[in-house]
# Entry
Amino acid sequence: MLVEAGHFALALALGLSLIQFVVPLWGARANDPVLMAVGPATAVAVLICIAFSFLSLTAAYVTSDFSVLNVVENSHSTKPLIYKISGVWGNHEGSMLLWVLILALFGSVVALSRNSIPARLQANTLAVQAAITIAFLLFVLTTSNPFTRVVPAPVEGQDLNPLLQDPGLAIHPPLLYIGYVGFSISFAFACAALIDGRIDAVWARIVRPWTLGAWAFLTLGIAMGSYWAYYELGWGGWWFWDPVENASLMPWLAGTALLHSTVVMEKRDALKVWTILLAILTFSLSLLGTFLVRSGVLTSVHSFAVDPARGTFILGILIIFIGGSLALFAWRAPLLKQGGLFAPVSREGALVVNNLFLATACATVFIGTLYPMALEALTGEKISVGAPFFNVTFLPLIVPLLLLLPLGQTLAWKRGNFLGAAQRLYVAFGLALLAALALLAFEHGGPVAAPLGIGLGLFLVLGSLNEIVTRSWSRGNSLSTVWRRASGLPRSAWGTSIAHAGVGLTVIGIAATAWGVEGLGTLKPGQSLKAGAYEARLERLVPRIEANYRDDVAVMTISRGGRELGTLETMKRLYVTRGMPTTEAGIMTVGLGQVYASLGEVQPDGSVGVRLYHKPLVLLIWLGSVVMAAGGALSLTDRRLRIGAPARAKPGPAAAVPAE
Amino acid sequence: MTRKQRRLTLIGAAGCVLALALGLVLFAMNDTIVFFNSPADIQAKNVRPGTRFRLGGLVKEGTVRRNSDQQVTFVVMDAEGSIEVSYKGLLPDLFREGQGIVAEGVLESPSIFRADTVLAKHDENYMPREVADTLKRQGHWQGEANASPRTQ
# Structure
């Protein structure tokens, strides 16, 4: 009964979204406040309906209601409760329901921030948001209904794909979706500005927190997915340039560019048309990501079931929204008042360079991801574009950007002094260079990439913090003065520095992978295997039986230079219901590095294949991403965002520019 | 600087970066792309030893031999050909005789392929798409029985 109610609520949400689409749009056109006020009310109602629908599906999962097909296919009564809940979005239908839930959630947050957004902008934005909701609700209801019943109901479910029975799955998709869908708000605001034909610094100020929040969540979501692949797939890699990964990287790159161009728009009232275009492109890439992952064009852990009808439907959504918004852009963008131009050597000039490199890098990822598919569709020739391609194209575009990053952050707005900025950075640059040279000398004969990359990462970290130091410290000041000045700096300045330092940490982690070592061998209990300085001794192989799987556990003692560091367990796991084996990597964290062991099949003679890795500083890759997201979050709490838009009495960009 | 000069600087910079990117992409397209071949293709296309490509097909029953030091050899076949593959490392969880796999590596001699990665899948019903397409083309596909039971 609850399931039918959930299904009905979803249909009701579709009807309400139609109202939310038509009425506010009309109201904004006729300038009728009553009609425009329909937008916020319906947005909240849509959220309530979809939330109810989502909860009813969750209830079916928690109670293992095997009369619902979706539950049968993805759940099992012996599964732990957390995986029953995360199983709701561990399948195609449920994950699309989560997608529309987040869409509606964001729509109603826009609806409820009534005082800070001009009414017409809000009405148009909600209408565009409703259009997206309609498309995805139609998709769920017609091709991916999670509420389908099955008669007669089976006694037991088919269990969730074992790889997805993991805490990583519980949080990775929601984080990623909040990121993807968060960009829909920037998109809706951009379309609203185009419909209205008006855009100014107030617009940028309203949109920036949305972009920033979406970006921070997307960063966490990608990092989480990467870590999940690292420990769950048992290959020891953290990024494979797989199309599925690229599908999330492209909106991230475009979103990062958008984040920075919005700053220019907010502070200097420039780059308006470009910012609008970026907002459209960022969400278009999010949609493209959804299409690639959900349509079955790619085979991956994300493509649950290949159903051509779904692919065609999402392709339709893609064409309507990307085509429609770009057409709107071509039609209305010339109406937008051009912003001012500015000196090339200035903060805004540096941000343009940032945008240029990020957009180009994003384009190369786009080509590398879609070219093989296009080629196969056109000629039938199958090729694979992997890491070598992206190392040649992506890295040469990102490394100069990273080198310029601290410099750009140091330049002043309006008119910067290149030499002055360089002078302020020479300490940071010198220290980083020294560190790189020292590492090169120390690791004589080792890979060159690691010291250079670590030098670059250090330069980023030091250069970013340098900004805080130079703004709060001057010769002869007491420590308490310095502290007072540092804590008095706007939180956005702190956020910027922290996020950029996070980029540096990630770069260091990535560079250090060049130092990674591995060993491979066949072990019997008592024998050992080496990877670099680390040694693993196989103590024993024991079977273990859990509720819904069986393990062959290998207990290993890890030692370094004869000194024991502890034991780790790595296992071969067999999920009974699906008869599917998985490898559970054993990981021991030593400082910021990790010792990582994975098992092959246990042979009849009692020996087992073991691969052992030592990965120095590998944790920095993900810690750096967390630091980036934390910087974004800190920036979100900045005073000027908390207080909201400037008073209407003083229109114009001048009022919006704080002295900085 | 005048307005026009500033605009030209911007356009010039954008042009340079785009040209750089285009150059890199074209260079990479020539150099880093890996083609996909089935065992029959190796003969048909006359693939030279030393070429790097992806090989896809079924693991022939009874041909998997594990030597010491995790060195494994097996035969990958399709309806019209077969080739011996040697690989050093842990095989993926879902590697089984009779299953479809994709291996990336180098053709060592016309009859031996040295793989450095062997890909399997995240799902027990998996048939790599490339392998499925090849088998379909050769008329040996009974994949629907293989696919997971899913009703709409």
Observations:
- Strands of chain A lie at 383-384, 517-523, 528-531, 534-545, 549-560, 563-575, 580-584, 586-590, 593-602, 608-615.
- The first strand of chain A starts at residue 383 and ends at 384.
- The two ends of chain A are 60 Å apart (CA to CA).
